[in-house]
Amino acid sequence: MKQKESDLVKACLELLAYKKIFAKRQNTGATRTERGGFIRFGIVGAGDIVTVVDGHHIEIEVKITPNKQSIAQQQYQQELEKAKGIYWLIYSLEELMEKLKQLT
Description:
Layout: H1 5-18, E1 23-25, E2 29-32, E3 38-41, E4 49-53, E5 56-62, H2 71-82, E6 86-90, H3 93-103
Parallel strand pairs: 5-6
Antiparallel strand pairs: 1-4, 2-3, 4-5
C-alpha cells in the first residue's frame, strides 16, 4: 500500500503529542461556494504542522518521495527563516525524530 502524506502528517502529530510537544495541523486550500466562487483558507506555502519546541517556532512540511516543495512553500520557508523561525522539510518519521533530538 502506497504511503500518503496525510498518513505521515498524522504520525508526526502523534509523535509530537506523545512527547508532549505543542503541535497543530495547519490546513490550507480552497473550497467552492454554492454560488460557484471559491473561499480560500490558511496561508499558501505554510507548513503542514506548526509547533513550538523550547520557545522555537517551527513549521514542518511533510512530503513523501518523490514529492517536492512548491514554489510557494519554498518562498514561505525563506520568509519564515528570515524572521528567525525554523522550517523543517521531512520525508519520514525518523527524520522528524532526528531533528527534534538535534534541537533539544
